[in-house]
Batch of 4 targets.
Target 1
Amino acid sequence: MITRIVKMTFAHQNIDCFKEIFYESQKLITAFDGCIRLELMKDVSNECIFFTISYWQSEEKLNSYRDSYLFKNTWSKVKPLFSEKAMAWSLSSDHLK
């Protein structure tokens, strides 16, 4: 399983727009082949910082999503709302066993 964490920082005036895009897209993303779950979290000390945490069956499934129209279309709407460059990590615990 792959855990994908994306940190996004928004201008304060863009937060509501981001949330609207996220909640419209969440069902489509979670229905994407290989997506197990998708969560949205907010930093406790900075209301402009959000994290998406998604769980994928494999890196191949995650990459398939990242190459999809759904991702490209959603990202094209979200990216202009950032006040800082997004950061992302793909994590696996498989090698720790």
Note: DSSP finds three helices and four strands in the chain.
Target 2
Amino acid sequence: MIARTLLPQLSARLRAMPAVVLLGPRQVGKTTLAREIARARGARAIYLDLEREADRRRLDDADSYLRAQSGKLVILDEIHRFPGLFDLLRGIIDERRASGEKAGHFLLLGSASVELARQAGESLAGRAAYMELSPILANELSAKGPRLEQLWVRGGFPESLLARTHAESLEWRLDFVRSYLERDVPMFAPRLPSAMVGRLWGMLAHAHGTALNKARLAASLEISSPAVSRYLDLLADLLLVRRLPPWSGNLGKRLVRAPKVYLRDSGILHALLGLGSVDDVLGHPIVGASWEGFVLEQLIAAAGPTRTALFFRTEKGAEADLVLERGGEVEIVVEIKRSSAPTISRGFHVACEDLKPNEAFVVHGGDASWPMKGGVTAISLSELVRRLEQR
């Protein structure tokens, strides 16, 4: 089993807050993480899977049952199935706070970020912390486990990454896509046709790493632009698609305003394109954009919630793949290259001149770091992740 770096952070939040909402796509490892916390607490923790009939029956009288668990951490998996619980949880938390029990009452697991945050936010404002569990990250790989290239090709869902063969991994990912379309889309968006969501998902794979063009997608799907927005909102809510917003400061230059769209897991991207092996990926035109999206996800995860992730592009071609801001200040700009001997594009130099970041990096496919022209540093992915996590 791969140790998740979020575990100590999650444990710390549970010691500080009455409730923690852990978000992440289905099959990403939320349940495994929650069970680790439950095992560490022994009899002081209860785990309920709200997809199981037996566990749902325990909540027939939810008020009495949950109030009887004072002093224990109650883990509620698939909490979106019981949206009516949030008001009840608020009352229990407030009563326990009044009696001196300040933290560690509930751990809530869910797969739809916006919807769950809305439900919880209305009732648990000031009472709950929100954390996101991403697919397995590069800094979570061990010396004896999968290598970085395998993580990139297969993606970070544990069952896919740790499959015995590329073929088994690809089959798992295709099943994952089917299950989302057959089960999760009808659950979270019953009015949206699953087949249309699936077609859009596939089209976004081909457009991975490009500026969002809703008019073109709408024309291809023969639907309206507002309908494209609804389908895209759903995929983003399910934490399957990232819309990276553009930097929008005032430079006196014409900036690209449309967000860039990425599939958040490179393995799902490759599955939707029918790419099962390293050679398949390397021989496909998507290879550069795929590597870019993979690196972006690693860096955004390492940057944490205190930094804002953006991209920068002007209509004249100045461009940075990733801009990290904190407190309104441009802290870091990044260009991403798959080559281990990268060169800096003219557009990136101009972006650095425009944005005046504290630091500028070219992330490459090798292991070394060295200074380049214009105050830019060539750096490996693992080294930049380490630096971001330490700040």
Note: The domain at 138-390 is CATH 1.10.10.10 (Arc Repressor Mutant, subunit A).
Target 3
Amino acid sequence: MRVVIIGGGFGGIRAALNLANKPGFEVSLISKLPYFEYTAALYRFATGRSQNEAAIPLDDFFVNDRNIKLIQDEIVDIDNDARVVTGRSGEPYHYDALIFAIGSVVNYFGIAGLSELSYSVRTVNDALALKKHLHDDLVAGHATERNYVVVGGGATGVELAGEFTSYLKKVRRQHGIKTKFNVDLIEASPGLLSSLPTSFTDRINRRLKRLGVKMYFNTAVKAEDAAAIQLPRGSIKSHTVVWSAGLTNNPFFDKYPNLFTTGKGDKVAVNEYLEALPGIYIVGDSAATQYSGLAQTAISDANFVTSNLKRQLRHQTKVAYQPKHPIYAIPAGHRWAAVLWGKMRFYGYSGWALRRLADLRLYITFLPIKKALTIWRSGSETDEVCATCQQ
């Protein structure tokens, strides 16, 4: 069976690994990038930690897998009648089963100025640009205080706001700078992490307040310019704005309304086997499933789809999809995290330790153990933009 997997993220890599060295499968994993971006580590990379944890070469995942072909290309066209997708390179890739794991993209909702002036942490390059900007802006010798604004009270916004205060203090200390700074967090809904219990998110809220983060709820951003961010009533001075308030589905699917039906959040409708059409599977962020948008869901989806492909090859009946309830681990500042695991809750250092152990477990399930340990340890290493900060 020729299986073409599009996307080198959690879902794509997990699907390929599940089919590695399995008789009867010929697998092509097609990715725009030669490396895997661990999005959960990007906020750490943006605030002074190692890139090695955030960007892992795809070759490292498939050292001993002979039936996996890694291809760096971007799929720009699909002809399902001919069972072929075409890359930007012009190369055709024929399939018997096609798995889309292409994730989501940043959505600015048409708000004036955001796409041109704000930063994000959706990719490794985004995180690097933000880290360089934070450093350069603070060490430029401004006489007045600096204001750093994070827009979006989801997991990424909380992670960034929590790290900003300690990171900016460190940069200021390393360079002997006395410039004051403020960190603001703006959220359009009534509170942080609106899909989670308020008794859980209240602890995160209190933690951010202790770190000095000022929060604005029920506040939607109207526009951004070079000096301020415009709100429904008034404005906030903003020398740096980081946008983490919106994602939308990959625009590839909108090009083919005859193949893909999209609904809420522009996600693709799928059947009980995660198929958009027979033989075309959607996993992870792009699928209209209950917990879509989380790395755990992408991995679970990949496990489900590849299990059914194996059953199909053995001429067995496929099973129906059951969403898997995720574990939530939300870091908020140095060595502090809140973890919601079923009915259990952990806060502070114990939550942070659980989060780091979860990272390690993930690396070990994806990579050879020696490589996994090396990458995991790199999460504690400094990787700065100047020699003075490498301490």
Note: The chain has two domains: 2-32+73-106+247-326, 114-245+329-389.
Target 4
Amino acid sequence: MDRRSLLRATVAGAGGLALPFTAWPAAYAAPAQNATGPYGALQSADANGIRLPAGFTSQVVARSRQAVPGTSYVWHDAPDGGAVIPNGTGWIYVSNSEVSSSAGGGASRIVFNASGQVTGASRILSGTNQNCAGGKTPWNTWLSCEEVSLGRVYETYPLGGTAVVRPAMGRFKHEAAAADPVRQVVYLTEDETDGKFYRFIPTTWGNLSAGRLQVFRAGSATSGSFTWADVPDPDGSPTATRNQVSGAKSFNGGEGCHYANNTVWFTTKGDNRVWQVNLANNTYELAYDDSLVSSGTAPLTGVDNVTGTASGDLYVAEDGGTMDICLITPDDKISVFLRVTGQGSSEITGPAFTPAGNRLYFSSQRGTSGASSGGITYCVTGPFR
């Protein structure tokens, strides 16, 4: 019996008995279909213009070109990829700035105490270009990725320290990163129409200064088996990394990336898909495809950043669409978790949960103005499962 049949038989044949949430991420049966969300219908827009399920509330944490409340630090333009880093007394939210170096590209942080109050804010990376997404590491650093030709990965230190470029991780149009502590690798997406999916194998886990860059090899289908192959020249010049290995599978505009429980998910904006790579058995498949929703209107378009929770739920942000964050449950149901209204010329970026799982941070990159200077960073609090 395959994974799909096993999951369905377990749920259907046990009179409502379901697998524990912690076991679900490895048992996704793709692709997800429309359903009522676990938190119910969206309510009317709140004072911040955000539609949320009952019991959830939002607040504005920071606005571009304004001092972060309670600090003198001016929040950066075009907030993009983000993550939450625990610091022992609370947590830090890190955020990239998707503008050029001359306009202040790089990354910043906001420090919170255990009650969620802001206690500080500062710059952690400067002088870089179009820092789009990235990913946090198990040793509590933030990988900030440049989304430009021959872009680089910078390892930043939200808990203190000077950012360092990591050229061994390849030079290409970087998007997101996701660390896999089991296999001791970092997965990387590439934002090109014929972009590739990569993994970086550090020579020493916890030290990204040296290692091997590999590319995902598979057929042209949307599911099947895969292998990895070394990229001969991670420097990407004169031949781009995506063109160096025969049989490397192309993905149309790689975006967000998330690892959990022997599975890595990543999104591709060119075809509105969420891909699922099952690392335990070396197979891949679709977790979501807007063209394969069997009934109703596809809720998720313009797929972008992605994150997950301990319950196994995936949260996928929209670049455009109807400015939603959509939720994909482990039993392959997709619904809209929240919607930002009145900001049709923006995109949702940087979703990330606190360690306790009761707060979700994210940004509207261009806010109500539609300009990079109009970015707004939010926090949603509520009874997340």
Note: Residues 40 and 53 are 6 Å apart (CA to CA).
